[in-house]
Design goal:
It comes from Rhizobium daejeonense. By secondary structure, the protein is an alpha/beta fold. It has helices at about 5-10, 35-50, 65-70, 85-95, 115-120, 135, 150-155, 175-185, 200-205, 215, 220, 235, 240-245, 250-260, 270-280, 280-285, 300-305; strands at about 30, 55-60, 75-85, 100-115, 140, 165-170, 190-195, 205-210, 220-230.
């Protein structure tokens, strides 16, 4: 998994500042799959890296493509490994050691099937209840981007749920939520991919379903989110690795930041700047022991770049 490499790269970082990263580290290639939580956290990463003098870039890619690109060294950083929901995506790369884990950057997340409260009250409490209401659901469940719904397909394929003739409707996070909004307005049945952190939890009255432990894990798909990098990146760019090792979030912070994207129409970096200015004290922990690419104090540089 490469943890030993990361440990060596970060050894002693609490006591010594890193020398400036080499020029080859200036361009930091990131990606996210079009999910608002990861768009926001990637925006945070981009904002901090720019303040430190790096030249980060990001692409919106499917999860499968992100992991292939990390393995092929076409990407450097991914802040959005949801575990256990993405275990099947990561497993092969983990076994080969071609993608390395830096740290868990979020706890308290969850990820499983959700329904509007009126659907729950009608009797849909568990995955095993879905087939009983097939006609009301139109034999459809709604997912996000193609390549990000493998678990939904696994649920349909499981004969114990009697869902073999159901369809997974794939579009995007925004497309799925637009369909949820339409169905809720008309009090129609819908089952969809739900998760927290996300403003959907306050925008709609939703309930999470039991019965998905085999696929999403216990406690309604209780999840962690981790930071992944391509093999060798931490050793090549230890100053960026130190930043990534510091970078952690919480559910409330991400909910607010995602609200800036969804409700206020901000771009990811615009939302990141606002969120940081709202809570500038977070910079102390994120930038502890981190320098600019040319070896100057990182905290001072980022504060200066943000006008703090």
């Amino acid at each position: 998994m490469g943890i030993s490499v990361l440990a060596i790269a970060l050894l002693g970082s609490s006591h010594l500042a890193f020398a400036a990263d080499p020029a080859s580290c200036r361009a930091v290639r990131m990606a996210e799959p079009g999910w608002n939580d990861l768009a926001f956290t990637t925006g945070i990463g981009m904002t901090l890296l720019k303040g430190l003098g790096y030249e980060p870039s990001t692409n919106m890619l499917g999860v499968e493509v992100i992991y292939r690109s990390l393995e092929n060294k076409d990407l450097d950083v991914f802040l959005g490994y949801w575990e256990p929901a993405m275990v099947n995506y990561f497993k092969a790369y983990q076994e080969k050691g071609s993608v390395e884990t830096v740290r868990v950057n979020l706890t308290g997340a969850k990820y499983t099937f959700a329904v509007p409260d009126y659907v729950y009250e009608a009797g849909v409490h568990d995955f095993s209840d879905l087939h009983k209401f097939s006609d009301q659901f139109g034999k459809k469940m709604y997912g996000i981007e193609p390549g990000s719904n493998l678990t939904m397909f696994d649920v349909i394929a499981d004969p114990s749920f009697s869902l073999s003739d159901w369809e997974v409707v794939e579009s995007s996070e925004q497309g799925m939520l637009a369909e949820v909004r339409r169905k809720v307005k008309n009090k129609e049945f819908i089952v969809f991919q739900g998760w927290a952190p996300h403003p959907m939890n306050s925008a709609f009255q939703i309930r999470y379903l039991t019965g998905g432990d085999k696929f999403y894990g216990p406690d309604y798909g209780a999840a962690t989110v981790s930071t992944h990098v391509r093999k060798g990146f931490a050793g090549e760019c230890p100053n960026v690795a130190k930043l990534l090792n510091n970078l952690a979030f919480d559910v409330d912070f991400e909910n607010r930041g995602m609200g800036y994207l969804i409700d206020d129409g901000m771009g990811p970096e615009e939302a990141a700047v606002k969120a940081i200015k709202d809570e500038p004290q977070r910079l102390e922990a994120w930038l502890a022991g981190v320098e600019t690419i040319d070896g100057k104090p990182g905290l001072d540089a980022v504060k200066g770049a943000l006008g703090l």
